[in-house]
Each structure stands twice: as structure tokens, then as C-alpha cells.
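Minutes, project check-in

Agenda point 3 was the complex the collaborators sent over. CS summarized: two entities, 904 residues total, and the question is how they sit relative to each other. Sequences were read into the notes so everyone works from the same version.
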Amino acid sequence: MIAAMQSRVVWAGIVPVAAAALLACNEGLHPITCSGICGTVTFAGAVPESTQAVYVVAYHTFPHSRDSLFNFQPSLSSLHALPLNGVPYFYDISVEPGRYEWVLAVWVKQGFNLTNADSTLREAGYYRSPADTSQPGVVTLGGAPASSINFVVDFGHMHPPCHYYNPPCP
Amino acid sequence: MPVKRLLVLAWLVPISVAGAQGTRLIYGVVRDTIGQPIRAQVTDIRSGRGTTADGYGRYRLTVVAGTAVLRVGYVGFRSVVDTLTVAPGDSLEHDYRLEAAVVELQPTIVTAAKHSQLLDQSVTSVALVSDTDLARRAVSGVDEAVNKAPGVQFLNGQVNIRGSSGFVEGLGSRVLLLVDGVPANQGDRGGIDWDMVPVADVGRVEVVKGAGSALYGSAAFGGVVNLITHEIPVGFHGQLRATGGAYANPPYDAWQFRDYTGALGGVDATGSYGRETLRGSLTLGGRHSDGYREQDRSDQWETSGRAEWLPEPGARVTASGAWTSHQYQVFPTWCVPGACDTRGQALQPFMIDTSGRGSYTRSNKGYIAATLDRTSSSTFAWQARASWLRTHFTDVNPDDWSVANRVGGELRGVLHAGGGDDRVLTVGMEGARTGVTSDIFGDSGRVGDHTEFEIAPYWQVEQRLGRLRLTAGTRLDHVTVGGAEPTTVVSPRIGGVLTSALGTWRASVGRGFRAPTIAERYVTTRALGFQVVPNPDLRPETAWSFEIGNSGTFASWGRLDAALFWTEARELIEPAFIAVFDPVAQDTAAEIQIRNVSRARLRGLDASVAVTPVPSLTATLAYLYLDSRDLSLDTVLSFRPKHLVTLSTDYRWRSLSVGADFRYTSRIERIELESVFGLDPRVAARVLDLRAGWQQGPVSARLLVNNALNYLYNFVPRTLEPVRTVSVVATWTY
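CS then shared the predicted structure for the full assembly.
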């Protein structure tokens, strides 16, 4: 009789609450912090109808030729498209430690492939040097991630890759 | 003046004489099986009149001479229903001894049929929050207690019964709030001020689920919540309650937002004095909270009073009122990149969007009500009441204000044919006038006035046929708002209750409706960067609500209640984007307007099981499964979680008690303005509340740890729900 009552107590009172408490562990909202380079992109201008996607990428060295155009990080398979609803967005890209000369948003036109990159890719905005906002800002990752790498994506002022080649396209 | 005095005296004297001639008193002591006094509720089932035993278990109740059927109950104990015969002019002493049994077999309710009845006679589901539940949780607000009722959930202060309301911030409620039967929804916005009544006054809460418009009209679209205040006992009584506590700081360094620990505290004092014929009580209270987020402080002062005159058995005149002044900072939305310095984070849920810095609200609200209850004979009773409800809020950033006055009245008669419950006829008429003066609900952004009139006759008949009890009723609401087309809505309901060996079966079908509020018709403001424009042509939203349920006991230590429900709603009133051509800019701009937009379906299962495996241990499990669809868009309805699980357990050992609540709410699948807020993180809610109590004579202390695991979550966009809060509540009762 007593054993039966103890069993009832355990099942009715203790087990459910303990199980519930376990369910609640390690869940809920938590900080979303940098794993590599992160910051906020804000948007300007109208999103072109031909837009396929916009990505944030980083170059160790500035791509002055078509040969180095695809030497960016993260890898193609790790790219995440930015939401294009006009609301400022917190981006976070996983990159290796090191020095990055150019962190930018790349606009991709519908129909993009590797052979037509010059006509279907655009620089849509980049992180600028705090000391000279006409120049790209250099981001260095040591042991800690780089946060607050904020910049504007301006769909009204986009440039093709060859704009930055040496020599630039006409 | 002398003439007026004479008139008053002429009215008073006959009643006083009748009262002196008709004193029929039942008194005694209520104890448990080991002789400890119980603050039991003693109710005359026929008249609905009752009293609460004092701290020594003593009760006194006046009844109509003849045969009286008393119910003596207290949560945690098996109720006793007793038939006593009291001779005219005589008194009767009768003591009661209650056996511990948490499974309450036959609670008496007053809301589902607008008269006193046993719970098992109700054709719709009713959830009860007893005074024991209120005391155990030592809640500081009524909403905290109602929130744990089966099938009920709050979304940032907006109550949902089986997913009725969803979330429309500050505009409209599909649940009707009553205070002792007096409608108390705001006159302008239609929402509910849960701080209207001090929690110290509330003795129990009845939650009637499903469309209740057949008796209660507009706003009872999804259900009714009735706050029933304490009976005033005979003699001097008082209670002093002090609360102190602290909020947990954010669990992550990255989310720290202040260098001190937020505190909360408050004091409530209640005093009452009662004699056989005259009783009164007064409550004063105040509380402060630093809040658990940035810009989240609040200060509240409240008072309430009640006077009762019982000139003779079967007659009671009640005057009651409450006033609350609440000043609180407004936490607009949490901070995301672009809205403040997020310190490299994707979100800062404890910090505000800086555009809302400095926002605060001063909200004053109160009501006065007078009620005359008269039991004319053993078969007929009637009630007349009048009430005045006033709300006045002033917002700063954005700056707006509104004053609403709602004056209402009701006359109701209840006929118990043959003196029993076999055939009961309820007939009544309810009316109200609401006046609103405001700059936000006024005249296209300027200060303006709007007036609304409502008149509504209703009837309901209950007939017992063997083991079957049938109920049918209808209410006709005629609503007129200045400048808009008058609206007439008919709300019928039929239902039945069948007692069987497999418990009590209930089934009902009824119509619900909600008339658009003055705020929904005339709001003019800006929200989320968009202009909100008025829509005076709004029509009422309507619904048909079906339910079939069963309740019963099992194994002598458990009780199960389950119901399948189905609601088909039409023309739901919700905000919608509209395209408006701007002739100046020669362009089309998006604006928000409240419109009749949606058809919706809400169906599911609402079940609860309560067990008492051993004396002094109780456990309840409640589960709500909600399948909600927006039939217009063929999507899930916004702000409706699919699963809601509530688990509660309490154990009492001598003067000590411990307990816990666990609430699981599944992740909300869809929200409004998905394009703006859809990328924000949303998680399921898993909240554990712990409590411990000690009581010795008139003194008690309770330790509460709400959200003990400091689980961080939100229901509505960018609004963090409360973090872990530790508080101690000390109570002295005389």
C-alpha cells in the first residue's frame, strides 16, 4: 500500500516536473555573435527586379583581375543570401583568421554563371576605412572575431568587377 | 433636503422591519478531519449567496426561511452539500468537517448561465482559478493567475482562450472581462486592464470558454473571464501583504544593460467589517517595479471598496468600486542593428530601439457599480445593476491620449420553476452608453468625440429531462455608433448535458460576435513607419462555435475533463495593408487600416486531468491542441501556438508547502508583418515556476521563483517575456 502510494507520488509529482525542467535546459534565446566577420548592412535604393541574390564576402587581397575574382571567403557552399526587405540585417560570415582587404556585398543577377560573371555580378557596397571613407577598410582577424563591420548596400550605385581591375574597364 | 431624507427613510424603514422579522441565520465552524479550521466557502445554492469562513473556520450565513441547501467547499477538500431546515425567525448552529480531496467534485459557478449552478450543469467548458490557486501562487496580478488556467494563454498581456484573440497590440479583445458580473473591457479600445481590480480582492476566477455572446454579447466572442471578489465575512478582518523581490540579470554578458539588479516590491492592505445587515471592505495598495528590461519601470497605486447592505434574507444591495493609477515606461521593441548600438550582436533583447526612448504611459482606470439582488421567493430572483467604467490613458512618444466612459445597466430575472433546478428561465436586458474623447481615436488625428449605444435583450431556458439537461437561449444586440450604420446581431445558443456512467457529457453550439471598437473604427496614428487610417464602416466579426466534452472522476483520486472544439469565424477584424494614391507625390503609398479581412477556423482539443495520488499532493496536467487556419490566405493563423501544456503540482506537509508549474508553448508558427519581423529568432517557451510556502496561524510567507531556469523567449515580435524573478510574499491575516 505504502509502496503504491510512493509510486503515485513519484509519478504524479516529481517525474513530470523533473522531466519538464530538463526540457527547458539550454534552450531559448541566446546571443548571436560573430563567428568571423559580422556587422550590420543597411539598404538604400530599389532592389532591381533581376536580382537573384546578394551575398557578403571577404577578400584577403583586393581582386585586381578576373583571375582573383573568385578568391573570396567563405566558400560558395557557405554563402547565405541577405534578406532584401529593406530592414537592416545582421550578417555573420565564417572566415579564416587573417587580414582582409575588402569586405563587400555582391549583387548577383539572374542567369549568373562562371562565364558571364563580369556582366552578372556587381559590387553593391563595401566596408569603408574609418580613417578614409573613400577607401575600403581593412579587417584583421586574430584570435577574436571582427564585429561592427557595418556598411551600406546601395542598389543605386553598383559597380561591375572590372571597375576595380587594373586597368579598369572603360 | 428634508423631503429627500423623508423619502429615503420611507424606503428604508419597511425593509429594515422586514429584515428584523426575518432573521434566519445558519452559523458554525468548518474544520478538516484533524480539527484545523478551514476558510471554507459556504454557499446557499439556490440564492447563490455565500460567505467565507474566517481564520478560525467560523461562518455565518443568512438564508430564506424554510429549506436551505448549503454547499461547503474549499479547494483541497471534498465539498459537502447539506440540506437544512430553518424556522422563520430562528437560528441554527451547524458545524462541518471536510475531508481532504483535491478532486473537487461539484464546484458552484455563476458565470456560464448568469445564475448559480453546479459546474457539471454547464453546457460549455469552464475553468476555475480558486482562492487556493491564487494564494499558492501569491500572484501580484490577476493576469498571472488566469494565465495558468487550462486553455488560457497570455500574449504580451492579451488574453487568449483557445487561441481566440491572437495578438493585436492595444486594440480589441475577443474575451470579455467581468468583475462580479459587471463588464469591464475598456470603452475605447475594447481591451482589458488586468490591473483594474487589486488582486487582493479577487476570491476566485471563472473562465467560460467558447462563444458566450448568447448571454454576454459583444467581446464574449472567444470566452468570458469573471473575477469574483471575496465575500465580506462577519466581524473585523484584515490582511496585510508585503512583496519584495528581484529580477535576474541577463544570463549572457553580451546582453547586460545595467549595473544593478532590478527590484520589485509592493504592499497591499485590506480591512473589512461586517454585521448581519451591513458590511464593508477597503483595499489600498501600491507597487513598484524596476522591470527586467531597459526602460521598463512601473509604479502603481490602487484602491477598491465595497459595501453591502442585507436588509433581509433574500435581499442584498451592493456598491463597489476600484481605482488604479498606473505609470509605466514603455518598452517599444528590442534593439536590432540599425536601431541602437547592438555591440556586435544580432539582437539585444533587453535593450530598446532608441526611437522609443522616453516612451511612457500614464493609465488611470476605475469603476463604480451598484447591484440590487432580490430573491423574491423560492422560485424567483432578480438583479438590477448599474455601473460606470472610466479609463484614461496618456502616452508620451508617441503623444496621444483617450478618455472613455462606459455607463451600463442590466436587469435580470431568474425563475426556478417548482423551486428546483429542473427548469430554469433566465430573462434580462442589458444596455450601455460609451463616450470616447480622444486625439488618437478622435477625428482623423484631431481631438474628437464618439458615442456608442448598445441595447440587448436576452433569454435562456434550461430544462431537465431525466439524465439530460437541455439549454437554449438567444441574445439580440443592437449597437449604434455615431456616424456609422446601426448593427443588429442575433446570437443563439443551444446545448445539452447528459450524465452517464462514463462521466458527464456536454455539447453546445452557439454564435459569437464582436462589434468593432471605437478605436478600431477611428484610430489615426503611425505604427511601424506606416500611417494608420480610420475605417468607420467596420462590421462586427462573427463566429459559430461548437463543442463536445466530457468530465468525470476515475479511481476515486482523479478527474478528467476533455473537450473538442471547433470555431468558424467570419470577417475577423485585423490590421491590413492598403495601397493609397498620394496626389501630391503622384505615387502609391502603403497604409495600415483595420478591416474585416479574414475567415478563420480554430479547432482542437482542450483537456485536463487532476489527480490526488495521496492526501496533500495534487497534480494537474492540461493540454491544448490548436489547429488554427486563416482560410482567406490558406495559412496558419498568426500568433496561435499549436501546443500548450501546463503541468502543476503541489505538496503540503503540516505548515509547509511546495509546488511547481511548468508551461510549454510551442513555437509560434506565424506572426503578422512576417516580412519585417520574420527573420527574428522565435523559440518554443518552456517556463518553470517554483514556490514554497509556510503558514502558521495568521502569518504566512511564500517564496516564489518564476521562470526559475531563466529561460529567454518571446511571443510577440521583439518583446522579451519575463526573466527569472525571485520574490518573497509575507502575509498577515486577522
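Noted in discussion: Residues 257 and 285 of chain B are 30 Å apart (CA to CA).
Follow-up: revisit at the next meeting once the mutant set is ready.
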